Amino acid sequence: MLDEALFAERALRAGAKGYVMKQAPQRRSWSNSPVCGGTLFKRKMQERMLENLASGSPSGSAPGVECLSDRELQVFQLVGWGCGTRQIAEQLRLSIKNDRTYRAHIKEKLKLRNGMELIRSAMKTASEQQHF
To answer: Is this structure's pTM higher than 0.85?
Structure first.
């Protein structure tokens, strides 16, 4: 599962009023929901997002990761979890050529010199995200 905090922050920046995590309990009061004009974020998520806003860094992300597109971020995270080109292509329903293109864009944006640096950076980011 991808680190939903990154996507929650992106959704919020894009104008979302809330983000329900996949693991969120089903029993929620709708009185504070986006439908009623409120916001809906899990307390732990709210605290984490406020800390990140105060420090100026996105949720548990490596420097520069915020510049990646959503699809590039997905590829980056899957690389960090040890998925190979074919696995990523199948999981994201991409051609292998598209996966390689996304990897090239990621390396360019993050100023990584080669595939090994991409893998190291992605694995480091994945390991940091597990601590949240």
So the answer is: no
pLDDT in tens, 82-91: 999 999 999 9
HSE, CB side, 13 Å, CA atoms: give it for residue 121.
21
The residues near 131 (Cβ < 8 Å, ≥ 6 apart) are: 60
Annotate 48-77 with b (16+ C-beta within 10 A) or e (fewer). Answer: bbeebeeeeebbbbbeebeebeeebbbbbb
**Which domains, and CATH codes, for the chain?**
4-55 (no CATH), 65-129 (1.10.10.10)
Within the chain, where are the H helices? 4-13, 43-55, 70-80, 85-91, 96-109, 115-129
> Coil, strand, or helix at residue 71?
helix
Dist. CA 31–CA 49, nearest whole Å: 22
CA 103, distance to chain mean position in Å, is 16
